[in-house]
């Protein structure tokens, strides 16, 4: 049986930002909370642009908006923790995405946290927590690509995960 390619309804040679965001809404991504502890306290954000880079040494990357307060705290502290969310953590993802009106340190009161090696907050119920030392920052358009060497791994290691697709969170 031959499958035929169905054309996208709207094709743009150079997509504008709204067309690109609409296309990206079709991409399913794991959901994470990226945290740090800086001189002004704990900071964190919800992120979907996270990937492994290498296993020798273990290295991760995360993309963060260049105007993020959490980015400034990560750059100042030189550490961050990527906390991969469990399927039931949709509310927590919303909180750290700043969609619930809870700001700053109050966001951390909505879950249980610990630390691993760097002192960055590690979510106790996360599927996995990658505790990283910041080794490189690359500026690309409006964002920064943070590269971190993984110095410790924590988390439950089992259970369903939280994903983001079509501008919403769901359990898989």
What order do the helices and strands come in, and which of them pair?
Elements: H1 17-24, E1 29-30, E2 32-38, E3 41-47, E4 50-55, E5 58-65, H2 69-77, E6 79-84, H3 90-96, E7 113-115, E8 121-123, E9 128-140, E10 143-154, E11 162-165, E12 168-171
Antiparallel strand pairs: 1-11, 2-3, 2-6, 4-5, 5-10, 6-9, 7-8, 9-10, 11-12
- Quaternary state of this entry equals single chain
As laid out across the biggest beta sheet, the strand order is: 3-2-6-9-10-5-4
Order of helices and strands: HEEEEEHEHEEEEEE
What is the first-to-last residue Cα distance?
30 Å
Give average pLDDT, whole number.
93
Structural class: mainly beta
Largest sheet: 7 strands, antiparallel
Helical content band:
10-25%
Strand content range = 35-45%
User: How many β-strand stretches?
Assistant: 12
Radius of gyration: 17 Å
Shape annotation: globular
**SS summary, helix count:** 3
Query: Uncertain segments of ≥5 residues (pLDDT<50)?
Result: none
